[in-house]
């Protein structure tokens, strides 16, 4: 995915289980703007959910949000939205279906548009189910912003025609601006073994800064897309959301024993393992020896300086999602830059055009310094009026960020005890799906560790730990 645009890459992975193995469909999106939507759909399979996945099988490139339907007669079908680049047509051309041959590992027969969508338009995210005597086609419509919705239609024939739900859409928060759950849509149906039905769907929880403009009264979602669940009931052969189509904050749990899951992330990660914690992610490329090491310096994450935070190619950047609007993150870095093109530190990031970074870097007159850099829709600033000089004897520079809902602040220390707050209030909304240029994307904000060396010498930075604690 090296070189993929902001908010490109893997979209809408769809996991299913059939014939004794797991099937994972996903889209790799190469172009997000303009008349064309270059994207490629792939299939990988695995006998166990935590095993070794097979090599990706290329399927098609006609649109995104692909899913695989396993019919009761043994046949399999790929569904995806159909992208139409023609100027005089709507770019969302409906839901297209084509049979997949597992034996030949390719699509067979001809693709067919089985559903053009409703007047809400922007029909995408198809999931097909065989329930009773009908095929039920669940899609998302209205776009992935606040108008988002879930539409369902049914047919006795897999190829249609499909009849739309009498009270469509079955889920949307567009008409309920006071609901904390906004952008409800892009859903999937689950039937438990106790014969209870649920709808898993995406949502966003916006913040509402005092300076909300008339154009953004619904707020901003720094946490990006989140997952919610609603309970379904059936009436006259159609599913309905219990409690109303706008979605509820609390739903009845299924009649099964409660399962407790251990946290997947310790409050403090001291990098004792040879692999990164599952919550950490890298941009576009995997974490390899080219980017860094967890063994070169024991109990440290070493990152080798690569390209800047504005690059879509090779960034040495390890980060995790904001999962709350009230948390603090902290790290300590040993870094000895030799020129101003080398920097390492703590970063809060949305994409290459929207981020802030508190970094150790170099000044020709002062030596090692701390610099705060802000990238606001690709407009850059460094607001510190007085340079923060790092004492020569200091090895680790401690960096912290406090997220306080609508605002966040950086802090630093040279001994981990005496913390100094940088009195510059940064706005959480500027790391949101709704603030970025173009809008309508969904990754949310990340916080993490980064090292860059645009001089090309790949100087290393050693991070002693990473702490993430929700308040």
From TrEMBL:
<dbReference type="InterPro" id="IPR041542">
    <property type="entry name" value="GH43_C2"/>
</dbReference>
<dbReference type="GO" id="GO:0005975">
    <property type="term" value="P:carbohydrate metabolic process"/>
</dbReference>
<protein>
    <submittedName>
        <fullName>Xylan 1,4-beta-xylosidase</fullName>
        <ecNumber>3.2.1.37</ecNumber>
    </submittedName>
</protein>
<comment type="similarity">
    <text>Belongs to the glycosyl hydrolase 43 family.</text>
</comment>
<dbReference type="InterPro" id="IPR051795">
    <property type="entry name" value="Glycosyl_Hydrlase_43"/>
</dbReference>
<keyword id="KW-0378">Hydrolase</keyword>
<dbReference type="GO" id="GO:0009044">
    <property type="term" value="F:xylan 1,4-beta-xylosidase activity"/>
</dbReference>
<dbReference type="InterPro" id="IPR023296">
    <property type="entry name" value="Glyco_hydro_beta-prop_sf"/>
</dbReference>
<dbReference type="Pfam" id="PF17851">
    <property type="entry name" value="GH43_C2"/>
</dbReference>
<dbReference type="Pfam" id="PF04616">
    <property type="entry name" value="Glyco_hydro_43"/>
</dbReference>
<dbReference type="InterPro" id="IPR006710">
    <property type="entry name" value="Glyco_hydro_43"/>
</dbReference>
<feature type="domain" description="Beta-xylosidase C-terminal Concanavalin A-like">
    <location>
        <begin position="269"/>
        <end position="469"/>
    </location>
</feature>
<feature type="site" description="Important for catalytic activity, responsible for pKa modulation of the active site Glu and correct orientation of both the proton donor and substrate">
    <location>
        <position position="65"/>
    </location>
</feature>
<keyword id="KW-0326">Glycosidase</keyword>
<dbReference type="InterPro" id="IPR013320">
    <property type="entry name" value="ConA-like_dom_sf"/>
</dbReference>
